[in-house]
Amino acid sequence: MGLLTVGWDRFRPSGPLLRRPGIVLLVCLTLAGAVLVAYLQVKDFEFITCDDDMYVFENAMVRGGLSWAGVRWAFTAFHAANWHPLTWLSHQLDCQLFGLKPGGHHLTNLFFHIINTILLFLFLAHTTREVWPSVLAAALFGLHPMHVESVAWVAERKDVLSTFFWLTVMWAYAWYVAAPSGRRYLSVLLLFALGLMAKPMLVTLPLVLLLLDWWPFRRLTATAAPKAKPRGKKTLYRPTLKDYRPLVVEKLPLLALTVLSCLVTLWAQKSGG
User: What backbone phi and psi angles, to 5 degrees, belong to 236?
Assistant: First the structure.
């Protein structure tokens, strides 16, 4: 809950919805219920022979559940031509809890998708101060057919899991922007690293954070305003590349992790032929 509340004053919404926690809760429950109704049928689905075999039911290191040997394997193996240790650990945990009953594995995917839908709504409403567009965007995210594969396919755990970390990185970044500090930046860096260990698709996230700097955080305007030259009674300012430099430099540690993830991914893909 800390990430959902700290820094709220910096981006205080003007609409009535987020000033009423009860209504916020009702919106979250409605979104969760809609996604649940759409996807609950997955509890009756089976594994399929496309990747579910190498990821779960024919993978001895996953079927055995959580163990020190399994953890070592998750962080050192390039199985299935990928390096995503957190994804392997999540599959191992499912096997620990549900064995090879596919319903539990499918419901874990659904759980993450519901949480992701709620996190997206709260983030958009929190930072843009636009409530109903945020509800619409989250509903489209939660119910759009494009996400069926990610939710209804056990081997796509890496997608819903990495999306969870993607959204928590954006929350941590909003927390950092509200009151920049080394500790808060470290939380962004740590969550980003965890996301890359779920799926390397997060390599584009530092660029997304730069877009968030422009809108809705408007950090470029804030840093460039002192340089503005008055013209009459108004101030006209057009950003230059130099104005972006501090924000780009701020992202360099994240970009370093991106480069490292790309290199590891290329190595893993090459090992798989």
Answer: -110, 125
